[in-house]
Design goal:
Number of helices: 11
Oligomer: single chain
Structural class: alpha/beta
Strand order of the largest sheet: 2-1-3-4
Order of helices and strands: EHEHHEHEHEHEHHEHEEHH
Length: about 270
């Protein structure tokens, strides 16, 4: 099984982030599963961090198109699953409507695992604007009765970057915010952006006051494996309804030709 894992982080911006995921996935994925990680194009965010940019709907729309190009490429190159590794699940529904292979999102996967482990969960994020973004995502997934309002952690993108290797200060901030959520009734915690989740996983934070901390990378990879298994059994995404309707191939070809997309078709292996 081959999985293509799409990150919203530029590969060259934080090599330690990708290197750590490469190492962790060796223990997470079952035998016979390979995971290839891809980031966004270098300098796509300019002087800003990904968290600064994608909280704006207009700016996020550019990322959506880049993700969809890689989704088409994943299917053309023979991958079994395409993964969107961002908690807000950008382009998830669009990619599902476009591909025949399973498409899995970090946010959706983590929330469903949290539902399996608890009655109510809370998401913790580190960028202002992501709190409302995630509350809206929870509503769209129909999980509003299972989730508390998203909480903001007092940490920056740079703090998270340092926390990937020097975790003590970041863990303290995370535990403080988590205990606020727990006091409000949270029975499971999702570290919002995968960047934050990786920092917590590498610090071996799996439980706070008997409340499980969802490991985002593990949740996403395991969901990808299961969805690929379902596909092998003939069980795949619905084609009924607006969100999952797959456009005819000639319609896609015309649109890609008109908009000048990548030689009018995705690259093949």
């Amino acid at each position: 099984m081959r999985i293509l894992f799409q990150s919203l982080v530029e590969t060259g911006r934080t090599p330690a982030y990708f290197a750590g995921m490469h190492e962790r996935v060796k223990k997470i994925a079952r035998p016979g599963v390979t995971v290839d990680f891809i980031g966004m194009p270098e300098n796509v965010y300019g002087k800003y961090t990904p968290a600064d940019v994608v909280k704006y709907p207009y700016m996020a729309a550019f990322s959506t198109q880049l993700i969809l190009e890689n989704a088409l490429r994943a299917e053309a190159q023979g991958y079994d699953v395409f993964v969107v590794g961002s908690v807000q699940d950008p382009a998830l529904e669009e990619a599902r409507s476009l591909l025949d292979i399973p498409v899995v999102g970090y946010g959706e996967s983590a929330m469903h695992f949290a539902c399996c482990m608890s009655t109510r969960f809370a998401i913790l994020v580190f960028q202002e604007g992501f709190d409302q973004m995630m509350d809206l995502r929870v509503q769209r997934l129909g999980l509003a009765t299972r989730a508390l309002p998203t909480l903001l952690i007092d940490a920056s993108f740079e703090d998270i970057s340092r926390g990937l290797s020097e975790s003590e200060q970041l863990v303290a901030k995370f535990e403080k915010a988590a205990r606020v959520a727990i006091a409000q009734g949270a029975e499971a915690i999702i570290p919002g952006q995968l960047y934050l989740s990786e920092a917590m996983a590498r610090a071996h934070i799996t439980r706070i006051d008997e409340v499980p901390i969802i490991d985002g990378l593990s949740a996403t990879i395991k969901m990808a494996e299961v969805m690929a298994d379902f596909k092998d059994m003939g069980i795949s995404v619905t084609r009924r309804g607006y969100l999952h309707a797959r456009p005819p191939a000639d319609m896609v070809h015309h649109a890609r030709q008109f908009h000048g997309r990548a030689n009018n078709k995705p690259d093949k292996a």
